Amino acid sequence: MEKIPILRMGEFLLVTIQVDMHDRLALALQDDLTNRISQTGARGVLIDISSLEIVDSFIGRMLGNIAAMSRVLDARTVVVGMQPAVAITLVELGMSLAGVRTALNVDAGMELLRSSEDSFEDNRAW
Amino acid sequence: MAIILNQKASSLGSILAQHKEEILSEWLREMGGATRRSDLIKASELESQCRRFIDLIAEATAAAGVNVQSGTFDSMRDLLADISRSRASQGFSSQETATFVFSMKRPLFGAIREEMAKDLNGMAAEMWNATELLDSLGLYTTEVFLKVREETIRRQQEEMLELSTPVVKLWDGILALPLIGTLDSARTQIVMESMLESIVATNSRVAIIDITGVPTVDTVVAQHLLKTVTAARLMGADCIISGVRPQIAQTIVHLGINLLDVTTKATLSDAFSLALKKTGYTFTRVQKKEKLSEEQ
Fold it and tell me: Which residue of A94, A112, A122, B148 pairs with B88 in a disulfide if CB–CB is 3.0 to 4.6 A?
């Protein structure tokens, strides 16, 4: 079964989604990621979805769920590199991913993770 | 029956061919009265148009009778379409354009009366044929005229849509979208797409939507604005709405629209300074400071 790799970078976990997400894969990722967070004690998770071109409401909800779960496990989640079409689709579906922080690219996302050590409650990038 | 009709029709054609000059001069005189707009079209141009029209109509009726749909009338239709198109762009009204064809009735009827004075039944039939023919040609003229107008309107609408949604780069990492005109869903879509694409292309972290030029903000427009802001946030950029006029602030509150999650500023300059702060820029007025210290 294909799997989405989870890379460890210091105290952060890096997830790069480079295949089309289907429901089972998303559920597996949720499972893997929560396990890895508790194993490694990661402080932050960065999910790069720049190659993701198609989303549906399920995948949108999965992203929200993963963020919420990581928060429970005391790790911040940043979703980076969302495509314009994906953003428009999610908005049209009525999903604003309220609890998820976002950044333009991996670079900005890492910066956000590092800088927001102390401002945990703040949803905004600055 | 078809043969009889054809014979009759071709007699209309021969009448037209025989009395060409007569009809032409009569027709031009007719148009010289109420409908000729000497300010818009030259007499020589009008005459050449009329001459060509009569030539074609005589040719076509001789060949195919009064059946305007037939292929022999193709060149006739092309001529009329050309005339309509040029009239529409010259500023004629639709009535004036259609009268170009209809004013030919009187001279044509005169010619028929003269030619068929002995055969009353034949005259009535010819008159009917001529009326039918000129009516359908006149209606065709109006139709083309309207089509040209509609094309113009549609093209202008598209141009307006493109003109009214520019994305401006204000600073490194700061974009501005000055919106002008009412926001409907089609425009919101275009605004959203062009903004998001520019965010990716310029790697911008802040986008300022300036609504100074938006006349009214109702629940639908607010909904569209919120969608745009949310989409930008999903991409990882922050959105500031600026140019909120006092009346608009009042309507927003009266309508109970929740804009609490969105940063709003009264002017574009306020929004810009906030954006600079957010991207980590600070500004100082060097010259002013020096002057002040000199004075001190």
Answer: B148
A71 domain-assigned: yes
**pLDDT score at B6:** 45
Q: In the prediction, which pLDDT does B9 show?
A: 46
Distance (Å, whole) CA A40 – CA B18: 103
| Contact (CB<8Å) B234/A105 | no
Regarding pTM above 0.80, the answer is no
Contact assignment for A104 to B237 by CB distance below 8 Å: yes
Residue A95 domain flag: yes
Q: Return the CATH number at A54.
A: 3.30.750.24
**pLDDT tens digit string along B67-85?**
777 777 788 888 888 888 8
In which domain, by residue range, is A47 found? Answer: 6-115
Residue to mutate among A93, A96, A122, with most B CBs inside 10 A, is A96
> What's the pLDDT tens digit per position in B131-185?
888 888 888 888 888 898 899 899 888 887 776 678 889 998 899 999 888 777 7
Complex prediction ipTM: 0.76
Please, are residues A71 and A104 in contact by the beta-carbon 8 Å criterion? no
Question: Would you state the pLDDT for residue A76?
Answer: 87
Please give the pLDDT value at position B290.
60
SS3 at position A102 = strand
What is the rounded distance in angstroms from the CA atom of residue B282 to the CA atom of residue B288? 16
Report the CATH number of the B2-154 domain. Answer: 1.10.490
Domain ranges of chain B: 2-154, 168-281
Q: Which amino acid is at B246?
A: P
3-state secondary structure of A3: coil
Domain B2-154 matches domain B168-281 at the CATH topology level: no
What three-state secondary structure class fits A46?
Answer: strand
Please, what is the average pLDDT of chain B?
Answer: 82
Which CATH number applies to B168-281? 3.30.750.24
Number of domain units in chain A: 1
